[in-house]
Amino acid sequence: MTLGVRLAIGWLMLVIVCAALADWIPFVKDPNYLYGFWGDAPRSGGPTREFWLGTDASSRDTLARLVYGARVSTFIAVIAVGSGFAAGGLLGTYIGFVRGKRETAAMALIDVILAFPPVVLVLVTVAVTRQRNLLVVSGLLGLAAIPAYTRLARANALVVTNREYVRAASAIGTKQSRILRREIIPNVAPSLVAYSLSAAAFVVTLESSLAFIGFGVASRLPSWGRMMLLARADIRVTVWPMVYPAVTLVLTILSLNIIGDWLRERNATRASML
Fold it and tell me: What parts of the chain have a pLDDT lower than 50?
């Protein structure tokens, strides 16, 4: 494991800890408290002893908003990627193993869904229903992730199905459900896990992009994309309220991609030995 992978894992662990334990971290303040309204905290102020990363245009603590912003990105990434992994992975593995008319029908439906861009799906649904809560956005992104997982799982299942140990299991009369559970799924799952990290990076990017254009999650919890949206108005005065969430977002996406590439290399080495 290289130093870059170790640093990436460390950063992701930090993000997850912040998302899970933000309410209990001693130095993290209320992310929505207007310190300038009740006190003398400046708007868009620089780092101080009280506010380590300064304040935003509404005199809220930037560090606190960064920490709590990890919750939105982490929650959406977990729900969206988990939905795609579970539904798409199982569907793709099954149709790649059984083949036949079921595979043809399922892949035709998947191709139709893939023709509809996920960004358009989210924008249209949010605009029509006017629902922008965490569950709705996460569910839409999870639905949009299913086709990609299905195609990937099917492709890997086709390869695994042609291996000698699977053919041997079929030749001795082992039930298809047992072969699928003990031989196919365990060998398809590592590729899906590696892809999940890159998919999570895409989901985090998409969520932040939607928030930046005003279609993100409507919640009292801050998000990194919304922080950049609010900081845009004062960017000529100070760039730091924009820089902090942008750097956090870049580091998170970069870490996910680095770990995903590392897992893919490990899976490729393992597959070459089989």
Answer: none
